């Protein structure tokens, strides 16, 4: 088990190195950073000075190493567009995205697992069929369309929930949170649902199919034959064995939630890193794009690692 | 994960039942028939858009601005012209624009899936057949990419390509960048499934026999194994198509897709969104319903196909 | 732990207390900078007029009244003398003196400044004493005070101490995100693209007539989202209201729409001097727009009435020149727009040797003017009818100005609102041959050039007799119309939306002044 973990950690490190390389290449080969940082009225002296300052006159490997070292220290360059450190901008925006992602993930996992169990146990019930059909529509509806429809219904027609932004946020020493005010909590509902819906349907369908699979197994039949109650069978035995694949997929989906936040944030004008990224793509603001890429990959690698560890912890067969 | 593995373990039995069983199932599934019919209808009307559509909305010279905002099937107040599904802000016939826009959506979808399939199947076959270090490298790359959702990969490729392309060519290459972006973000699924299926196939007797009589690796891979791993590929391709269509719409909605003068379904929805509050609901509704029908029909087909090829999952 | 909880509770209380009275307003773009000399565009100047002040300011009717200067008079024909207000403090508490005016003048006239054209006629400046400043002009300039109302004064000590003596146009320095003005409001929080929060400045020299305790500006990129936010009361004011949503908002009892004609003329400009086309299939071929007949053809092919009627839903006014009829110096005799006449347009093209048309690239912003992208798309359709194949590229305004400055266009869209409310203004900025040394033509991106107009400008600037001045302006307008250096299309509407309980003043320059806001 130990060697397994070591291997995974090494792999994770390798992934980060590669992603760092991609980010670094973007930085250096897409557009000319000098061109982007100096205006039209520049002199050769300006160019040379900046080139030395940025270390662009040094060998490639040295540049790459410096880039990585800087990134580890949290120095991610300066945004072409806003002209201030990328790390600072991202730190400002990250709480918004993380809070939104948390809410959507809770929604997706909570509702997804519940509906999945329900549709598996009552697989032939009318409600189950309806849930399954609606879920397919949910998968076929692009996120942005769901967002627009929710805004139209709940903000404009019914006037229940806010249509954009985070509402009132409280600053807790650099971390802005919307969890502490009514308007902040209300602002989280629509984007949270929009972002979580797709993942929710995925988890629901997965739980359902895994559960059905498990319920067909021999030991469940034996349990039934032994006269255990349906409740005990469903929850103590079946659900427990469904969890392994569910945790894997859920873990991976958490990463997706953060990435898919790009769309939700655009629709709801949510001031997170996703909105920052989409603006950066439009403006070809490479430092922001590169930093976002690295940030997301660190997050994904961490999530994957945790999932792997959980996997081992839950499934004893993998421990050998 | 487990769904995929289930699909491929079934690959072998499938080749014998493909002709009779699948068709029988199709004939007896109303969902399959309807979704197939809807897909076919939409694809055909898109392909033949220049013949079917009443106007050519991509020809700016044919537009009359005074026809702007004409409600569905109501004569325009100034020109008296009438349009079945109304017009948008530029006086473009919505029906024609949907048909032409769907052409772009479908073209991007098919091309991107083909690209993803080509790369994925090739790499999957190679990885599965040769194993060892090649396998390890390919699958690690796949693992890495799998951790990034396709929309993010597509956006990154798009952003990088935008930085590379001289401004004067951006319009021309936008469509191809879109295809490459979606296609490249899509190959991993294929590679994983094909690799798994190949691992199973390669130890089968017919492959061993072929090896014994001295067939080259290439001819074994593409002559024998490929044919036998095609059914799970088909399932993935169908579901990928739905995802690719949605991805294209999403990118266009985000404003990084096709140019505004050649709207795809996503662009139309973006435009229509601006008129949601002002009563011009048709600009948003019809493209949205079309997109939903298309994605839903393809998804249902994919779902059905998977179940039909693997009844255990039902 | 208990401490944190208590702190949180306090934070909660204070937040709620503040939120009760925070006035919120929204627009489509964020002011790119907080530096009053770095970008000469309405979103920036309009916002900063709440924070910084000029020597004089405009009242609700756009008339000039004293601000940092209490009075001014011409020094014969040599220039203007300004008497400065005493006991004025900057937000950081330092005193306002003549030194700050001289410093701000020097800063605003640097090559890095975007507003140096305001001082094209100025040859020098002198601080006579702490509260008297004299501007010297090369020729008599009777309207000089009118032209510098947006010239905002920065504190010399603060700016230099923060090494921001040079305005940063496309990059950033301390003054890009921090402010230290004398105005009624001070910036307390600035998060680019997210929000900017201002609070009343307690030490303001004038008496406050508003009842705002805190105000927050949020850029909302999507106009539909802004409308939804106004309807649900999340914001108290939006600018602009999308033309299509005017009817709906007017029908709602909770909100009102304020509509007027803005001073802004929307026009197309051309690469008048470039030798070759830069975009599309014909890139590299000789530039047809050098020929006035081709530009004329474009002018005849654009159906402005149709644009106004459909895209603008009636809330715009066709215009024949670079200023609206409400401006001083408008040429009444030249009020007629060239007729929408496709045959004439085609004939002009044929005459110029382009009977089969050609293709080129057009640049447009997509979040700067009302329905800018839709108007450009419509123009593409209209030009297609005379055989011109247009490749349209639209982009957000923060990308747009750099593209224009780099002359990356064959044809482009521009909106112009004369800060001085005088027809001389666009001639100085848009029509005279660009000349950085003389600070002329700084927004003349297509480099339109006409010797006679260049001669006329100084005459217009120094002419005191109204009739003679008008004759000079008419001559310049006529030349520009004949040459079709620009294609002016319409005067944009001013469309603001506000909650019913908000009283505010809609000024014709589209500046939203917080000091006239009352929330009931």
Automatic annotation (TrEMBL), chain A:
Keywords: Cell membrane, Membrane, Transmembrane, Transmembrane helix, Transport. PROSITE patterns: ABC_TM1. The keyword Membrane applies. It is found in: Cell membrane. One of its GO terms (cellular component) is plasma membrane. It is a multi-pass membrane protein. SUPFAM superfamilies: MetI-like. GO terms for biological process: transmembrane transport. The chain crosses the membrane at residues 12-30, 100-118, 130-154, 243-270, 290-314. Residues 94-311 form the ABC transmembrane type-1 domain. Its main location: membrane. Belongs to the binding-protein-dependent transport system permease family. This is Peptide/nickel transport system permease protein.
UniProtKB/TrEMBL annotation, chain B:
GO terms for cellular component: plasma membrane. It is found in: Cell membrane. The keyword Transmembrane helix applies. The chain crosses the membrane at residues 31-53, 104-130, 142-161, 173-194, 233-256, 281-305. It comes from the Bacteria. PROSITE patterns: ABC_TM1. The keyword Cell membrane applies. One of its GO terms (biological process) is transmembrane transport. Its main location: membrane. Keywords: Cell membrane, Membrane, Transmembrane, Transmembrane helix, Transport. It holds the Pfam family BPD_transp_1. Belongs to the binding-protein-dependent transport system permease family. This is Peptide/nickel transport system permease protein. It comes from Epibacterium ulvae. The lineage of its organism: Bacteria, Pseudomonadati, Pseudomonadota, Alphaproteobacteria, Rhodobacterales.
TrEMBL record, chain C:
It comes from the Bacteria. Residues 1-20 form the signal peptide. One of its GO terms (biological process) is peptide transport. InterPro entries: Peptide/Ni-bd, SBP_5, SBP_5_dom. It is found in: Periplasm. One of its GO terms (molecular function) is peptide transmembrane transporter activity. Its main location: periplasm. The keyword Signal applies. Keywords: Signal, Transport. GO terms for cellular component: ATP-binding cassette (ABC) transporter complex; outer membrane-bounded periplasmic space. Gene3D superfamilies: Dipeptide-binding Protein, Domain 1, Dipeptide-binding Protein, Domain 3, Periplasmic binding protein-like II. Residues 63-431 form the Solute-binding protein family domain. Belongs to the bacterial solute-binding protein 5 family. This is Peptide/nickel transport system substrate-binding protein. It comes from Epibacterium ulvae.
